[in-house]
# Entry
Amino acid sequence: MEVLPCSRVAHIERKKKPYNSNIGFYTKRNALRVAEVWMDDYKSHVYIAWNLPLENPGIDIGDVSERRALRKSLKCKNFQWYLDHVYPEMRRYNNTIAYGELRNNKAKDVCLDQGPLENHTAILYPCHGWGPQLARYTKEGFLHLGALGTTTLLPDTRCLVDNSKSRLPQLLDCDKVKSSLYKRWNFIQNGAIMNKGTGRCLEVENRGLAGLDLILRGCTGQRWTIKNSIK
# Structure
């Protein structure tokens, strides 16, 4: 075993875990405790990644006051210092204002989903709330879809685009979309999702026995809700 200064190995697992069978719960609980003690203004990243509300996440993380006091007594650097000096390539999502599953008032059992990656097209799929359905709406009006990216060295989560030609919403690398307006959307909770460049809305088309389609068209008053918001 090598010991590397500033290495980012998080955990070396045992072959057999002497833990409670519900390990997912404890993983989330520990992640939230770390976020609340150490991550300062970046703690929201953990809540976004797990698709949990910042307030009342449904997980009792216990009292972390002693851990915060320890951090203070040790005069530890803040998390911004860590990002600036140790992990500058970490992607930062402080521009997020809402996140989680996106549901339409005309089809509440299905959610916006990234679909097969190779198709580059957003779809509707039965709601499960995992990575492919993690929507993230930003201050700039971008609507990202998919699990959070990790570092700037790897591709970021793609964003929803109306290219003005197709009736299908595209999922593309935001940085490679030349028209700024085609990747920006007007959206408020329980309101329409309207593209700033084309004026078209993201809507659900009911095709009867053929199912539901996610399309772009002139707005008809359909409304969308997203699970979590950041105040």
About this structure: The helical segments are 23-38, 44-49, 65-73, 79-85. The longest strand covers residues 96-104. Residues 23-85 form a domain with the Helicase, Ruva Protein; domain 3 fold (CATH 1.10.8.460). The chain has a mean pLDDT of 91.
